[in-house]
């Protein structure tokens, strides 16, 4: 590590102890942008790095709710309004028992640069709670969401801070959150994205992250003279991102063979076709069941408890579950098994040692802040449609999404070349996103 990175990280860790995932996210960016600081002293003079890692505002609150048996529970509520240099705070809400300040700061920090890459005017934010929607009744989820919004409503707004979904927050939760926001504010505005189709949601928003991550893989392959067609694909997770990643792989002629949840994973060597995907969508989104039920319906497939998806031989890998799900050993297994492309649907799913293995071995590697930016980009398109009070067709939104993913890839590709590391899309994404936000911060003075 250089002195520049060492000194900065030592200070960050001292000021923000016990926030390991946040340290991890910042570390990667600081390593990438050292060269930018060498070429442009204005960023050091403007203390841009010191300012960009400090959220503009952090909101912490109590969320009490009552379960179906009448027992009272208390959860932690968070919203990190991280950076508004290029637009209103924008980023999802996560509901998962592992949620804490460090996780949301890592996600919010990533979101700043990701949103800058989308070409749309959105700042970075993230929020959520340690509430676990799994195993809760619809009424319990509703009571929690209403209680959460009873505090959050005073901090957000269509021109201030526009939340969306993330792990544990899908259409059901957005509906409950939006309903309480509308009641408390007495206004119907585009304050959330990922809304239902009947009440301001955009076509393709549910599909966008999964489609985008697949488009990004296709762009990386295209630049290397290849395509996804005919390739076997590993997909982890079975939630929103994973489902639509599988769908787009099928559209592009690839063969997805795995899917997983936090209990275990399925390998289906015959391929997960459209009928099987429809079964998974019903199982996860309607019945809220576990992925192991797949093998009861499709006995040729194999279910294994625990982790292990990345040890399966395939041509392409799409981590779509959670952070740090690809270990260094997994990354090595992917390389050794001849995998050609890794495109990240989940946020920061590969540990730093794993990223280094991909880069060293010249893997076509699309880091999450670029590869999964299609979700927030389409949220930006939903915001535009809400402001214009009209809605675009499915084809129009998909075309815009596709063009945005191509533009993100081009920024990553060209910036990596400009800074002397061709093919390193980690550097490309970090530098391109950083420079846009940093220049905007300099324009706006010390605020
Ligand atoms: P969902 O809640 O719809 O699905 C999450 C999936 O990941 C589930 O299959 C879940 O399994 C699995 N999972 C969650 N935590 C773990 C864990 N600790 N270990 C193993 N598996 C786990 O979330 P999304 O699909 O929306 O999000 C998935 C990833 O994509 C996250 O990293 C999110 O930040 C990222 N992302 C999402 C965007 C979006 O638009 N939704 C946009 C950009 C990024 P189980 O059911 O057992 O919990």
End-to-end separation in angstroms reads 31 Å
Q: What's the CATH architecture of the domain at 208-366?
A: 3-Layer(aba) Sandwich
Mean pLDDT: 97
Largest sheet: 5 strands, mixed
Q: Please state the structural category.
A: alpha/beta
Low-confidence stretches: none
Radius of gyration: 21 Å
Number of strands: 13
CATH class group of the domain at 208-366: Alpha Beta
Write the CATH homologous superfamily of the domain at 208-366: NAD(P)-binding Rossmann-like Domain
DSSP helix fraction: 40-55%
Bound ligands, each once? NADPH dihydro-nicotinamide-adenine-dinucleotide phosphate
Shape: globular
Helical stretch tally: 17
N to C succession of SSEs:
HHHHEEEHEHEHHEHEEEHHEEHEHEHHHH
CATH topology of the domain at 208-366: Rossmann fold
Percent strand? 5-15%
Largest sheet: spatial strand order: 1-2-4-3-5
What would you note in describing this structure?
49% of the residues lie in helices and 15% in strands. It has 447 residues and is an alpha/beta fold. Helix 5 links the parallel strand 3 and strand 4 (124-129). The structure holds NADPH dihydro-nicotinamide-adenine-dinucleotide phosphate. NADPH dihydro-nicotinamide-adenine-dinucleotide phosphate is lined by residues 165-168, 170, 209, 237-242, 261-263, 320-322, 345-347, 372, 375.
List descriptors.
single chain; about 450 residues; alpha/beta; Rossmann fold; 5-stranded mixed beta sheet; 5-stranded parallel beta sheet; 13 strands; globular; binds NADPH dihydro-nicotinamide-adenine-dinucleotide phosphate
